[in-house]
Amino acid sequence: KYLETTNTRCNIHTLDCSILDVNLSNENYEGSTITYKGGEKLRGYKIGALRGATPNGGVIEEICISTAKEHDFNMSKDMVLNSAYLKEGDYLLEDRGFLDIEMFKKLNKKRINIIIPAKKNMEIYVNAVDAAKQNNNWIKHPNTKRKGQDITLVTGLEYAWMSEKDKLKKPSKLELDYKINCCVIRFEKGKNKEVLSDEEIISTDGDYAYACIMTNDINLSCSEIIRFYEVRPEIEEDFRQLKDFWGLNAYRSTKYHIIVL
What is the pTM of this model? Predict the structure, then answer.
């Protein structure tokens, strides 16, 4: 209703999930499950949210809710694929929890532009970082606060991330309907020690560490990919404010339908 009444059109969206925890020792919360976050045991639910970026902030466009154990991708995929807010030409910013080639292909057919990091164990990550090192054509990170960080663009990497069905096809019969470019980020380890803890998407080599952000919008420059993806953490601040100031995880009942409302 807010978007309709204010005639606000969001063309940059972020998909993310957050755990809503309840009293661990209270088993009466209907539909709650036990899981672990950062090594800490907790009980609760999980909320998935699609957030639209506005000129002065952002707005939660759609939500879904499930148990705390549910994988982010599984609980959110139907919401995203059927969203009335994701329009042709829009940008969807995701974190590594939503890496799925079939989802990527479906969104690409809808002409949604996806920006998402690759994990270091993926073929596309290895190929992109190897090509970046070989080309050695680095430019400074567009955010001047990012000290000791350089970026470079690697193109034509779609054949390094394919579905299992496509992998079984003969090369002569393989035609992909999507393109993928990657922005590779190089970190000076001495100036960016905080990034080294993210071992799932960061690899190290000598004095440097590397991350890779993928997109199917091959018209974006490396700096533009970075600028878009720097909007993604804003949803995490939204979640923090919803919990700390708006009482999103303050419960007045243990009944599931009331919690959802």
Answer: 0.92
Neighbours of 158 (CB within 10 A): 18
And the tokens for 8?
């606000």
- Residue of 211, 159, 208, 157 lying closest to 184 (CA atoms): 211
Question: Which whole-number Å values give the CA distances from 2 to 37, 52, 56, in the listed order?
Answer: 33, 12, 14
Instruction: Look at the block and give the residue holding tokens 């705390």.
Output: 68
Cβ contact 90:112 at 8 Å? yes
CA–CA dist 58, 47 (Å, integer): 17
Please name the helix (run of DSSP H) or strand (run of DSSP E) that holds residue 151, with its range, or none.
strand 149-154
pLDDT for the residue numbered 249? 85
**How far is the C-alpha of 67 from the C-alpha of 42, rounded, in Å?**
12
Exposure pattern of 160-185 as b/e (b: 16+ CB <10 Å)? bbbeeebeeeeeeeeeeebebbbbbb
Assigned token pair, 105: 């292909």
Q: 175 or 101: which carries more pLDDT confidence?
A: 101
Cβ–Cβ under 8 Å, residues 41 and 218: no
Write out pLDDT tens, residues 221-238. Answer: 999 999 999 999 999 999
Structure tokens at 199: 């071992």
Sign of the CA dihedral running 19, 21, 24, 30:
negative
User: Are the C-beta atoms of residues 79 and 48 closer than 8 Å to each other?
Assistant: yes
Retrieve residue 192's tokens: 């960016």
Sequence letter at residue 9? R
CB 63 within 8 A of CB 75: no
Residue 54 vs residue 124, higher pLDDT: 124
Residue given tokens 């990497």 in the structure block: 157
